[in-house]
Design a protein that fits this description.
It is built from 23 helices and 2 strands. The chain is an all-alpha fold and about 525 residues long. The chain has one domain: MFS general substrate transporter like domains (Growth Hormone, Chain: A, Up-down Bundle), CATH 1.20.1250. A two-stranded antiparallel sheet has the order 1-2. Helix 10 runs antiparallel to helix 19 and helix 14 packs across helix 20. The longest helix has about 35 residues.
Length: about 525
Amino acid sequence: MGLFKKSAPSTPEDNGYASKEGASVFGTDNNAVLHGDVPIGNIGSGVRDASPDVAGGNVDEFNIPVPPHTTHAKLMRRIDFHVVPFLALLYLVAFLDRINIANAKVFYLATDLNLTGVQYNTALTIFFVPYIAFELASNILLKRFSPRVWLSCCGMGFAAVTVFQGLVQNYGGLLATRFFLGLFECGMFPGCFYLLGMWYRREDAQRRYSFFFSSTSLAGAFGGLLASAIGKMNELRGYSGWRWIFILEGSVSFIICFIFLFTFPSFPEQAKWLREDEREYVKARLRADQGNNAAERKVTFRDILTVMKDYKIILGGFMYFGLIVPAYSYAFFSPAIIATYKYGTIQTQLHSVPPWATAFGFSMIVAYFSDKAKHRFLFTIGPICLPIAGFSMLLAIHDNLHAEYAALFLICAGTYSAMPVIVCWFSMNLAGHHRRAIGVAWQIGFGNIGGIIATYAFISTDAPRYTKGYAICIAFVLVSAISCCLYFAALVMENRRREKAVRDVGITEYEKTELGDLNPDFRYML
């Protein structure tokens, strides 16, 4: 795929191509990596094509043998084609089924179901109860059943519930369907991010992460377009337009997820579309970047306690938590905000599309330059400034519809471009299956508590100015910015400490695997 360029591979720790003594078949001393002479995660930079070695075989610039029948660039394109589009499409339909209730509300869902007061907000909130409670368990089950089986079955589950949501007759039925929607969707985001982290090195990852995450922006854009078209089916076969939104979108999601049950990608160790030497090459690159990942190792309760003692893990949760409030506030309430600009129902849906489309393009630009610079911190702080400016404009401006509408672009573009960088930055700084599975599930699970706050930030009685909601969003964006600064400082201090420490401390390969990113040879990406 032309969107994704290759980045420099690195020397593996023990990639299966090395001899017993640690010298590779091409004369490279792999023990330099094993014993800390070359820090894991900080081996080199630059992008160069594979080149022939003295023995005539193809090796990359760090002497990792490339399978003789292919090249690094061709292999990365195959991986991109088999992994990224599937994850992006799965999360697109998941996010679309999650937020289409906002479009349905414009077509009189609340009126037809006789919702009063904050009942609509409560229906949004109930989604997050199972979504937060079962995210960690879902990641553990993902590892046990394989992503293809687990994520596809969960996808069929949330798609069926979405269809049922279009058939509810009262408030109680809406609450029940939103609860089960959250239950089936709880593993989508952390599971997909976790799977991406098992395929790509940190220097290769951000554009893939952002392309995947930007499916949320596409879902928002498609949601508005689809709702504007489906809404015209009002009273077809006796169903209101908002019911058809749920029924049709849920049906399409179910068909897609059923196909995924047979085609969805799994971990590199399980990829049947790769040859054995290709799998070894992919795993060697990952080991060089992150150490051994212990894919075969089960996650235990003791692992959870150990990982959660690391204060950097806690900071990762707050980085994401701070942005979830404005993200879900925008996703759930932007149609209601736009409706206050005196547009009709169809025009409201259509005007919700451009900010989402802009967010997609901007997030890909941010991701490209973040990968180019091999840096994450500044590419979180920069975009975070945009929603602060956008919400400040909405607080101060009440008589200029063009300026208010422009503020929505800043909010959407800034929030939805900073979030994938934050999650990628945190996730790819966690080495090993167990630390990454636990850490990502914590970040996403804890962060989504912000979704509960977002559902009550914009109450109908606060319309049209929504002063309280805008102020709440600014406060939480600042929480995210401060947490990012603290996380950055923690990584800088830890890298400096490890540079000054004794390299060869006699740690065995098993101990390195258990330590993950706590391995003294590991260097955090800033």
